[in-house]
Amino acid sequence: MEPQPSSRSRASGEPERVAAYWESVKAKAGPLLRWLWGFEMKDAVPLPEGPVIIVSNHVSYVDPLLVGWILDRPGAFMAKAELFNIPGVRWFITSAGAFPVSRGKGDSGAMETADRILNAGWPLIIYPEGTRNDTGKWGAVRLRSGAARIALAHRVPIVPVVTVNADTILPKGAWWPRRVHADARMGPPLMPADYLPPEDWPLEAQIAHVNGRIFAAVAALLPPSMVVTPVAGTEP
After folding, report:
1. What's the domain count of the chain?
2. What is the DSSP annotation of 113-176?
């Protein structure tokens, strides 16, 4: 049986190494990314100081690369635990600051790691859909509760980031990236006053309220063709 990956992220224990990794990737891979994908960063601005939650759509395995690229300081990614059992992938995502989360199981270890990262003042990067969205349409997959729960607990800025056309780089079933145009876009932060609901609301209603704000902030950055009416409700 494969050993279960630790939920600890390098971003919470070795921030300098994660920062050095991303500096190296940007310096060495930059010309290749621009040649392959005409990659652009749109409206990139410095992140708010201190802890911040980054939320993004998730349509491709290359999303973490594009999202990490647009950020001015590295953070920690939540990534599905299964990826950490693939040796080459595990090295890449661990170096990038990722930590595993077991989806649909109420992973307390992952939530503790998320708490530790934010308490240390680092960005936390979450895909609210909880999985890669094969449709490429924001709203086609019901948002999970994790990002909203963490935001309610920590009351920190939420910054929306999106990738556009990333799903055409490595579509489902492809083994080699295609040469297409892709870009990453960053929106203005949602400050706590922008998303916090009344404290006397039931928790489920508070989560739905925060997810509504997250949905709208991400949707505002995407082309209309990539947005559909959101699936009702929230996954646990």
Report:
1. 1
2. HHHHHHHTT-EEEE-TTSS--TT--BTSSPPBSHHHHHHHHH---EEEEEEESGGGTS-TT-SS
